[in-house]
């Protein structure tokens, strides 16, 4: 039986402000990249002069200000796990 997932929303305003709902956690962040987790995906936000203006993990809300260049989705296990999968295949 498939698990019911709560959808999330992204609102990008003039490539300068990004609001995301249903954020479960923020993995890493600096002025050029923010890596965050939703219930089902890893989201990577890249740009310049990025700053987290609001983080409410209990409410699932994140607001990022700065020059947003790209937003990429990866599967929940996609970020940082490719190397492990490759090594596991080689060591079989």
Strand content: over 45%
Q: Given the helix and strand composition, which structural class is it? A: mainly beta
The gyration radius over C-alpha positions equals 15 Å
Shape: globular
Q: Helix amount, in percent?
A: under 10%
What distance separates the N and C termini? 31 Å
The total count of strands amounts to: 6
Largest sheet: 6 strands, antiparallel
Helix and strand pattern: EEEEEEH
The stretches of 5 or more residues where confidence is low (pLDDT under 50) are 81-92
Mean of all residue-level pLDDT scores: 83
Number of helices: 1
- The spatial strand order of the largest sheet comes to 1-2-6-5-4-3
Structural write-up:
The chain is mostly beta strands. Helix content is 10%, strand content 57%. It is built from one helix and six strands, in the order E-E-E-E-E-E-H. Strands 1-2-6-5-4-3 form a six-stranded antiparallel beta sheet, with no helix packed on it. Strand 5 and strand 6 form a beta hairpin. It is globular, with a radius of gyration of 15 Å.
